[in-house]
Amino acid sequence: MIERLCKFAAAIAFVLISSTAVQAQTTIYPGNLPPTPAQSKAPSLEDYLASRLRAASEDQRSYVHEIVRLIEQGRLDKKLVLALERRSRGKNPVFPLPVFERTLRFEAARRHINVPTIQEIVARNGATAARSIQDSRYPR
Fold first, then answer.
1. Which residue, 97, 111, 107, is CA-closest to 62?
2. b/e map of 26-52 (b: 16 or more CB within 10 Å)?
């Protein structure tokens, strides 16, 4: 009887010791590794906004670049722009850029900041301005 009790106690002690060793290994390994260079490289704000707002054309990317430039100058708040980006994706997930443009102009006007439209940026750019006059529905 005592011999069976000793074997049982030894088996329980072995299980307890091995489970703490395994538990210590699992807590050290996955979460505490340093990130790889691919994981630590975050996209720039301009790339992030262009991809999330689905800015496909050169003119649309120029608009996003102008917004990022206003943020870097300190005229626009980064938190405001990111909040409006999330809101515009909620309103129109397929093509959120027009919603973003309208809401950003409205919020910027409330703060007395002049934000250009995409059409104003197209008018500044001479190479694409002539192309944008023609309707894209009709071939040349």
1. 97
2. eeeeeeeeeeeeeeeeeeebbeebbeb
Q: How many CB atoms lie within 10 A of CB 136?
A: 7
Q: Which two tokens stand for residue 26?
A: 């699992």
| pTM for the full predicted model | 0.63
For residue 54, how many other CB atoms are within 10 A of its CB?
Answer: 15
Tokens of 29: 């390994």
pLDDT of 52-87, one tens digit each? 999 988 989 999 999 999 999 999 999 999 999 999
Q: Which two tokens stand for residue 31?
A: 């979460």
pLDDT tens digits, 82-138: 999 999 999 999 999 999 999 999 999 999 999 999 888 888 776 555 555 454 555
Q: What whole-number distance in Å separates Cα of residue 11 and Cα of residue 54?
A: 61
How many beta carbons lie within 10 A of that of residue 105, not counting itself?
A: 15
Rounded to the nearest 10°, the torsion over CA 58, 63, 65, 66 is 140
